[in-house]
Amino acid sequence: MPFTLHPLLPPDIPRATELYFTAFQNPHSLACWPRNHAPVRTWWETMIRTELHEPGSQWLKAVSDDGMGGMVGFCKWRRFGEGEEVGTGLPEWPEGADARLCQETFGDWAGKHGGLMGGRGHWYLEMLATDPKYQGQGAGSQLMRWGLERADQEGVEAYLEASPDAVRLYEHFGFREVARTDTWIENERVKQGVMYRNLFMIRPLKAAG
């Protein structure tokens, strides 16, 4: 199915937040973010609105060309220049979120990002979500290609963090696992404790020619 990419705009933010919560059903996301809790949704919408014009960031939406014209996916790509430091500061988490888990995991992941890239310029796929009804139809791939084409044009690597269910897609686009971390997750939303694995992946420089 064909899709068209457009910049994500402020009126799209509630739909993007809904897409995120619908698309991410892994134990980490479910444990961190209660789905039907107003302060959490408000926090997410405020976060996206604040970061829409963050230097180096590109927020995109995929719109279906099936005549309905609806947004079916979105992403955030972030460009890091050579020597640019990856920030490790964390926000204040919203009421209702699992603040301990957020602090532990997002802090660890940010630290690994900077350590693994070592100050090299790169494009970072910070967020990618597709409506489950449209998964496997090409919207996520188009959003991926947007950033990878720019990485190739600039001759730099691409970086992302992956949940296990997304690894095959990223491997298809040339990403390779370079590290992983396991976190025990158990709270009122994930009552039967589970070990959650997060993978860190780098797409190498594209060979010249």
Automatic annotation (TrEMBL):
A Pfam family that the UniProt record links to this protein: Acetyltransf_1
Domain N-acetyltransferase: 61-206
CDD domains tied to this protein: NAT_SF
InterPro entries according to UniProt: Acyl_CoA_acyltransferase (IPR016181), GNAT_dom (IPR000182), Trichothecene_AcTrans (IPR052523)
UniProt cross-references to PROSITE patterns, sorted A to Z: GNAT
One Gene Ontology term of the molecular function aspect: acyltransferase activity, transferring groups other than amino-acyl groups
SUPFAM superfamilies (alphabetical): Acyl-CoA N-acyltransferases (Nat) (SSF55729)
Domain of life of the organism encoding this protein: Eukaryota
Protein name as catalogued: N-acetyltransferase domain-containing protein
Natural source organism: Friedmanniomyces endolithicus
